[in-house]
Design goal:
By secondary structure, this protein is α+β, with helices and mostly antiparallel strands. It folds into 2 domains: 129 residues, no CATH class; 86 residues, Glutaredoxin (3-Layer(aba) Sandwich), CATH 3.40.30.10. Helices cover 53% and strands 12% of the residues. Strand 3, helix 7 and strand 4 form a beta-alpha-beta unit. The longest helix is centred in the middle third of the chain and has 22 residues. The protein is elongated and about 65 Å long.
Length: 236
């Protein structure tokens, strides 16, 4: 079978991730957690927690489910939609902590607590793998939504920071990434609307602006007034 072309290098473009890779990894995590719960085998929780920790700290080349997807599945079936990698990263971090706690609880004699924690990870991870509903990702997105523009510059974008934000009319501002599929969809939607000009900020080219305005996720889309005051947050 021919190798499908990749838009993003999975080991270098780590600020985005193939959404199917995230679901595949959740499927592995959920299956191992479920086996540990059904078989009363806390070592499964500990090993899965350790593998997640290795992937989080050393990168995708050391994440076995990631390697399996990127080397065996993606080249044959193609790349899925690319998304911001931070939400699934938080989900993996939560899974790491909860699975480690499950194993420790079991070994300390609190078997019921261990089973409950292991079963919780299994249920949520398998839910994510099968439906795409990632609870840890949604927690991250909720936090990003609540933070919005960082408190240091809450509710305002300086017109002088952005080419096209001229201070004379309302506009949309989208913080985007060139490999983000959802970002392109938002850009198309806003340009088609045509009611306000659209100013895009590539966070890969302008990381200083992403830091200045506390952009926690892409796409972040806001409507601003002529003086840069944020009128509405459309995404996340």
């Amino acid at each position: 079978m021919a190798t499908a072309r990749r838009t993003a290098d999975p080991y270098r473009d780590t600020d985005v991730i193939d959404s199917r890779a995230a679901r595949s990894s959740q499927g592995v995590t959920g299956t191992v957690a479920l086996l540990g719960t059904v078989l009363a085998w806390p070592l499964a929780w500990a090993l899965m927690s350790a593998q997640l920790l290795v992937g989080l700290t050393l990168g995708r080349r050391y994440c076995l489910p990631c390697l399996a997807y990127f080397e065996l599945v993606q080249p044959r079936f193609g790349e899925g939609p690319l998304e911001d990698s931070r939400p699934p990263r938080l989900a993996n971090a939560i899974g790491t902590v909860v699975l480690a706690a499950a194993a420790i609880a079991w070994w300390l004699g609190a078997g019921v607590v261990g089973v409950a924690l292991g079963g919780l990870v299994a249920a949520l991870a398998l839910l994510s793998a099968s439906t795409g509903l990632c609870v840890g990702c949604e927690i991250y997105r909720l936090g990003a939504r609540l933070r919005g523009i960082s408190p240091r510059h809450h509710g305002r974008i300086e017109p002088a920071d952005l080419v096209g934000l001229d201070g004379h009319r309302e506009a949309y501002v989208e913080f985007t990434h060139p490999l983000c599929a959802e970002c392109r969809e938002w850009e198309r939607r806003l340009r088609d609307a045509g009611d306000r000009p659209l100013v895009t900020v590539d966070v890969r080219e302008r990381p200083e602006l992403a830091r200045k305005y506390g952009i926690a996720i892409v796409p972040t889309v806001v409507a601003v007034s002529a003086d840069g005051t944020v009128l509405d947050r459309l995404a996340p």
